[in-house]
Specification:
single chain; Antithrombin, Chain I, domain 2; Alpha-1-antitrypsin, domain 1; 10-stranded mixed β-sheet; 3-stranded mixed β-sheet; 24% helix; globular
Length: 426
């Protein structure tokens, strides 16, 4: 998240989040079908007991609903949002802090915010290292040296987020862009351009990166063209990856879910496929209103482990999301009002008040047969024979996805309405 202080002491906020999954391959055994690969063993994912509550995801769900209303592809990082806004909350006070907590679930006790951030990051870093995944959560405070952070604010930034304290170069935007590109391995470039004015006095920046291999990869030679049905308009011809394996699935009257684990089995992609005749938008709006449980944990859902013929389109896309309007709609209004905003916990008082000018997030997904965050849909028929026996799990219409950590931390969430657009640059 980026807060930039300039001549009028406006507090601009920009959140940068990057997800890059382009790992090396783990070879599996070929199956009998010309269009589907079969694994050499079962895919297994350890199911944690904790079930996320929608209250924790109120802000990303609001953003997801915005994208659903426009039927546009989107990828978001709830983890990145909570981290960036959590850093802001460390310096917020009074009603400004209370509103941030109500809108984004930041917490209202600065000490508890820092402790929770530190514990969550430590657990994710440990799990990623043990599983061979590449997980980065990097944070930084930038200044010109004209503003010195208050000791408690600087201490909690370091303890909770391991934030670096860095100095702007001649161009604040260029300085932050180089840092973001380095932390995201080049996945996000020029993200701060236009977001940081030349006379910026300080900035808070957050970057997230996740890279992992599938537990068992999709075989490249099984990838084939099939049909995706976007719900409106003409059916689309897109490329699908195919795999025959055992998967953990749930089925309820309104949706099905399938978990695809990454190597080590603690991180996984959960795909949520609406039932025939159910619009993805209606699922998302129901989540936002709290009318149904987290996908896969609905009271009327049946959970099984079974052999399925999974088809999933490969895709690569990015999205930039304006977060400020959603925060205002959810009640965090004082932070944007120069006469009411209270960020007195960040810096010593000055002649002008601080307030938030803008907040946005930029995220990137890259996926292929070796490893992916699978927000995709596939066709029923690719034109080749399907081996008898296993039931197909065909994601051939708009759907949502959640990238989950070991304790169901929602690292990334998104939706795919247009699979062709998601493959436009692949």
């Amino acid at each position: 998240m980026l807060f930039s202080f300039h001549r009028r002491t406006v507090l601009f906020a920009v959140l940068f989040t990057a997800l890059v999954i382009a790992p090396s391959c783990i070879t599996g055994r070929s199956g009998a079908s010309a269009r589907r690969g079969r694994t050499s063993g079962a895919l297994s994912a350890t199911a944690p007991a904790r079930v996320p509550e929608w209250a924790e995801l109120r802000l990303p769900l609001e953003l997801l609903a915005d994208a659903a209303a426009d039927r546009r592809n989107v990828v978001l990082s709830p983890f990145g949002l909570s981290g960036a806004l959590g850093m802001a909350a460390l310096g917020a006070r009074g009603e400004t802090l209370a509103q941030l907590d109500a809108a984004a679930g930041t917490g209202s006790d600065p000490t508890a915010i820092a402790e929770r951030a530190a514990d969550t990051r430590a657990a994710l870093f440990e799990a990623a290292e043990e599983d061979g995944a590449d997980f980065t959560a990097a944070d930084s405070l930038w200044t010109h040296g004209k503003r010195t952070p208050l000791p408690d604010f600087a201490r909690r930034l370091k303890e909770g987020f391991d934030a670096e304290v860095l100095a702007f170069g001649p161009s604040p935007a260029d300085s932050v862009n180089r840092w973001i590109a380095r932390k995201t391995d080049g996945a996000i470039r020029d993200a701060a351009s236009g977001g940081i004015p030349p006379d910026a006095q300080a900035a808070l920046v957050d970057a997230v990166r996740f890279k992992a291999r599938w537990a068992v990869p999709f075989e490249r030679e099984r990838t084939a063209v099939g049909t995706f049905f976007p719900g409106t308009g003409t059916p689309q011809s897109v490329r699908f990856m195919n795999l025959l394996a055992d998967f953990d699935v749930t089925r309820s009257p309104r949706a099905e879910t399938i978990d695809i684990p990454y190597r080590g089995n603690r991180f996984r992609m959960r795909i949520v496929l609406p039932a025939r005749g159910v619009l993805l938008q209606s699922l998302i709006y129901g989540w936002l209103r709290g009318e149904s449980a987290f996908p896969g944990s609905e009271p009327d859902a049946t959970a099984t482990r079974e052999e399925l013929a999974l088809s999933l389109p490969k895709f690569s896309f990015e999205s930039s999301t304006d977060v400020a309007d959603a925060l205002r709609r959810l009640g965090a209004k004082d932070a944007f009002d120069p006469s009411r905003a209270d960020f007195s916990g960040m810096f010593a008082p000055g002649p002008d008040p601080f307030f938030v000018g803008d907040v946005f997030q930029r995220a990137v997904i890259e996926t292929d047969e070796r490893g992916t965050t699978a927000s995709a849909a596939t066709s029923v028929s690719i034109g080749c024979a399907v081996p008898a026996g296993p039931e197909p799990f065909v994601v051939d219409r708009p759907f949502a996805f959640f990238l989950l950590g070991p304790e169901n931390e929602v690292l990334f969430v998104g939706a795919v309405f247009d699979a062709a657009a998601a493959q436009a640059e692949d």
